[in-house]
Structures are given as C-alpha cells and as structure tokens.
C-alpha cells in the first residue's frame, strides 16, 4: 500500500519560511519523480515544483527563486523549502509521485496559511 504523508504546514506571516516534508512508503521511491502541487480556496490544483529521480528540478514561475525542492532517497522523503512567503501562497499543499509524466499517487495534503 502506497502512502505519501505530508507534514510541516501551518500559519506563518508574510515574508516567513516553512519547510514541508513528504514521507513515502510502499513504492520504489528512487524511481519516481516527486512533486508538490497546491490548491487555494476556490481554485484548481496547480503545479508548484518537481524533482526527478536523477535530481533535475522544475518550478512554477510563481515560486522560482523562493521555493526549493529536494529529496533524500535514503529517507524516502521529499522536501519543499518555502521562503519569502506571500499571502497568495496560502493553499493546501499536496505531495505527488509519478513516472513518465503521469502522477500515480497523491498525499492527503497539508495546509499552509500565510497572513499579511
């Protein structure tokens, strides 16, 4: 049974930082591209960042220069370091695992709230 468990969300003031973690189990972690998506109230889920099995990264334009995705294959964990947070970053953040451009698994999400 595959599980992706996010943690690290919370309430932070604008300009602050948070680090999200996603612990994976039940899958060959090193073979998957891992990603973060987010969904703000009343909006569709959107891509935030991804890291391939080889370590290549990709970011949404809205977070480039502020967010950093990384992975620790030994710990089967992917991270999202979020700096210079803005109120518009407020959303539920979801971890995702995929291969060949297709998302196979989703986490349950963790709420990030940025106050102005």
Explain what you see.
With 116 residues, the protein is mainly β. It is built from no helices and eleven strands. The protein has strands at 3-7, 10-13, 18-25, 33-39, 46-51, 57-59, 67-72, 77-82, 91-99, 102-106, 110-115. The strands form two sheets. Strands 2, 4, 5, 6, 9, 10 and 11 form a seven-stranded mixed beta sheet that branches. It is globular, with a radius of gyration of 13 Å. The model has no long low-confidence stretch (mean pLDDT 97).
Span of the ends, CA to CA: 40 Å
How would a crystallographer describe the biggest sheet?
7 strands, mixed
The helix tally amounts to 0
What string gives the helices and strands in order?
EEEEEEEEEEE
* Oligomeric state, counting identical vs distinct chains: single chain
Determine the fraction of residues in helical runs and give it as a percent range: under 10%
For the CA atoms, what is the radius of gyration? 13 Å
